[in-house]
Give the backbone structure.
Amino acid sequence: MLLAVLTGMVGGALGAAPAQAAPAASPTVSVSTYAGDELTAFRGSGSGFTANASVNVTVRVNGSPYAGAYTKTHQAGASGAFDWVWVWSNGDPFGTYTLTFTDTVSHASVNVTLAIKHTATGPTPAAGTHLMVDTGSAPALATVQAWQRSAPYDAIGVYVPVDPSADNRHDKVQSNLTQPWVTAVLEGGWHVVPIYVGLQAPTACETGSFHAMASDAETAQSQGADAAGEAVGEANNLGIDAALPVVYDLEAYTTGCSTAVQAFLLGWTTELHALNRTAGVYGVPKSAAHDLTDAAAADPTYVLPDLFWAATNNRRAAVNSVSDLPAATWKVANQYIFDVTRTYGATSLTVDETAVDSTVWSSTRSDPPPDTTAPIVAMGNAPDLIRTGTTSFAWSGVDAGSGIASYQLRTRHTAGGHAAGVWSAPASMPPSTRASTAVKIRRGEQVCAQVRAVDAAGNASDWTFADCTSRLDDDRSAKPGAGWHRGHARAAYRRTVTTGKRSHAVLNLGRTAGGRLAVTMSGRGQLLVKVGGKRVGILRGTGTHWVALPRKGKVTLTTVNRRKVLVDGFVLTPR
């Protein structure tokens, strides 16, 4: 569920009461029509109180003092009147609430009684609206499917993955949120709305402990654009409908950081539009919405998001009930209640509920430009050196436009000491967003792989960098000179090891076309590495050591002293 902070609502105008004021005879307090359940925000007005007097409010629930937060003082105007509001807080007891309004001058008091009951099910959506739920963690699929049979909602918000350096989600694991989960929810008739909880307002203005955006506008705008690109990629990975808005969750923040926030959200919106996606922003109306409209008023070229999702907790399941929301050319969603427990299909779940403009689900950006952008593909990092006969290469890709249609993989095998081999003909691979392949590799050989992606519009990415793995060759492939002895060792690679015990003993590893050498060794001795009789490095200590080979020629290892040194394996690679 979203982490919005709801600010207190104060009725009436504040002002100091005069020292002398004539008391009123009979104060009254009215209460607006209400449903009497946890959706309720109670409203009313007081009249007949002392002109300009303070009116104190106390609340009792089921006969005991109420411990929750509420506005404890109102100020009567010159007419002795004021407006008031009281919101039932999630987690408060159900039952009878008594609000007592006391005139601090006349000491007259008026009681108002409110009965609040639990509502197990949500409201019926009003004309022109849809209802949506969201939870901090994507629920189990069985729970969602039970709800889909009888709940009034037709969408669920989910928190897509975020780069760890910017991840402000409540649940950073989201173990249920997978592509099959999304597919099943869509098949059940609900939309899935992607929500991205990344960098929040600069540290000076944040209301929690968050990863914060930069305070300077240029960097903040770049961060917003980066967030949009990542959010679209993650939404695509999950198979979320590209027609739905991608929503940025911007938590409540204090004043003083408008410029950075405006720049960040401009980067978010413009990048989403460039990716042919609809942009949404979630936030508190009086901060986020006002900062957005202020930016548009100051600069006609400023691009507003397509959807503003207002965090209100105002208990009104309608989009036209959001107060303090500036008029703008955006569609509106209203998160009208936080942390409410509902029960459908004998399954209970604590959710936030939102009313959404009914045109949001069907809306798509008009006249989408043709997809001319190639996919983005990245290789994983295969190990530099292995001992087994098979290695794996992995990669991932994303395409924000028409989607990846296929991957093409090519490999290159190079025998030890030789110049790099030629690439194989590309082989097509299925269009999953994450893929891998296993490749056989001989001893002393290096295998490299490259991948490119082709999207449905025919755009092809560049080949990725070459990801390479080498397989260790056995010490028996080396030619020992005088002073080296080859023997068996159970724990050694292929159970043999070559040992040197005297100085200036030469071990011939073969020829190189230039590249690198890896040697697995142990013991206290040291080895000079020579290429064509010229020293290029020295090896010491137990483990696998790499050294660059800058020229062609015969590669040898020469003992430096009489200390024992053991060579277990080596490989000559072209890079």
